[in-house]
Amino acid sequence: MQDDTGRPAKRGRRGAPPSDKPTLKTIAQMTGLAVTTISRALNNAPELAQETRERVQKIAAEIGYLPDRAALRLKTGRTNVIALVLEPDEQIYGFGTSLVTGISEALRGTAYHLVITPQFRNVPPIEPIRHIVRNRMADGVIFSKVESADERVRFLIDAGFPFVSHGRSELDEPHAFVDFDNEAYAHGAVQRLADKGCQRVAIVLPESALTYSEHLRRGFVTAADERGLAHEVAADVTLSSATDAIRTYVMKRQRRPEPPDGYVCCSEISALAVIGGLADSGRVIGETAHVVTKQATPLFAQFRPGAETVFEDFVAAGRRMAELLLERVSGAPAAGLQVIDEPRFDWPD
């Protein structure tokens, strides 16, 4: 068989007709099934036999079939896309990678695909959200670093656009979120430092606009007051400061009168910086100074820094956020879609 140039005509995989882009009709010709059946099988229609769905989905994967997003949006108003807004740095530190893993697990077997939209530091956080909504680039969006009066939350509620946030705002209207009980974490961390004999404790907080910064502060101060400990919030540095800045701050603070002998850290990266500053100041972690930090990846343990850790499961958080978002997209009210994960304090003997 030849084409118009006299060269042998190309054949698709599995004997499929030649085509630049596989379509539903391509799969229908290969399977002998109707186009409508193919569409339902690709969307996991429960009325179809499992064998039929698996056969169609396998062939679609083999020939590289992808749905026509523009046509789908015109026909149904849906894109079958979930957007995750993520800062590039969050990928480096493992937070983003863990969220993507969890979200992908939840979307597996559904018609939805995950698209990551970057949030660059020199761009207002509302901008990628506006872009997604105004151009209808997704059916729902997930984002993090929520502020008490978050502009993104307000905009999405007003637009009636489905979303789930990692962290919560303090706006009056309910919204879907997955959060970690940071107040309970900070309270438990200070209790542990007191049990280890610390007399003055310190904490490096996130930026004050973030809701969970106040949650951490509240738990930290409450526990310190309960145990009669002197306490302080690190000045001039926050959780987003460069690690060198945090390390230098700790070193300088250790040279001044009544330096802290216990630190509560809110991330592995900041904990390594604090531990470095303490070690450079002659402190022995676990003996003359103590550190408690949240841990989200196995990487931290490889350094064996002597700190005690509380696990925060970002993979599970990503999975749960995707599940809640699919409920929102299907019309579930936001009022019943709030999750707060409790910290587990498995201290060593």
UniProtKB/TrEMBL annotation:
Organism domain of life: Bacteria
Keyword Metal-binding among record annotations: no
Alphabetic keyword roster: DNA-binding, Transcription, Transcription regulation
GO molecular function, one term: DNA-binding transcription factor activity
Stretches for region Disordered: 1-24
Domain annotation HTH lacI-type: ranges: 22-76
Classification via Pfam families: LacI, Peripla_BP_3
UniProt key word Membrane: no
Identification of the protein by name: LacI family transcriptional regulator
Organism: Devosia geojensis
